[in-house]
Design a protein that fits this description.
The structure is a single chain. The chain has 148 residues and is of the alpha+beta class. The chain contains 7 helices and 4 strands. The chain has a 4-stranded antiparallel β-sheet with strand order 2-3-1-4. Bound molecules: inosine-5'-diphosphate and magnesium ion.
């Protein structure tokens, strides 16, 4: 499998619960290396643009309101098959349906406030990474040993 990059976001509910460290730790211990991290309060325009694919969905307005309700943590994660691996670590969109041991199962409260975002395809990951991070803000470094 090839090394990929994917966009991860710790949503406002995750930041408010004080679990930034625990979320990042799950990525690191499972082989996803953070190569860019930034905290940001999204503007309405930024959130609408990011979720433009969901514009026609009934939950779009509420989703934009939620995503702009407090700061988020934006991250680029890198690793073998990073896009699918991140989705696995996150769990299903609806925390009630998320598998044991996933971030959404352990920390999320409802289908909207589901703690994390992750790109859903390699193609979308490229678009989403560049939506928030110019190449110059992405770092390259080697892990000397994997965190356990
Ligand atoms: P994903 O985040 O697992 O990829 P998507 O279907 O892409 O899920 O939806 C994007 C986000 O929109 C979800 O993470 C969640 O915050 C919100 N969302 C999705 N479906 C619903 C819903 O039925 N009601 C309310 N919010 C929803
Ligand atoms: Mg999605």
């Amino acid at each position: 499998m090839a090394s990929e990059r994917t966009l991860s976001i710790i949503k406002p509910d995750g930041v408010e619960k004080g679990i930034i460290g625990r979320v990042v730790s799950r990525f690191e211990t499972q082989g996803l290396k953070p190569i860019a991290i930034r905290m940001k309060l999204l503007s309405r325009t930024e959130a609408e643009g990011f979720y433009a694919v969901h514009k026609a969905r009934p939950f779009f307005g509420d989703l934009v309101k939620f995503m702009t309700s407090g700061p988020v943590v934006l991250m680029v994660l890198e690793g073998e098959g990073a896009v699918a691996k991140n989705r696995e670590i996150m769990g299903a969109t609806d925390p009630k349906k998320a598998a044991e041991g996933t971030i959404r199962k352990d920390f999320a409260t409802d289908i909207e406030k589901n703690t994390v975002h992750g790109s859903d395809s390699v193609e979308n990951a490229k678009v989403e990474v560049s939506y928030f991070f110019p190449e110059i803000d992405i770092q390259q470094y080697e892990w000397k040993k994997l965190a356990k």
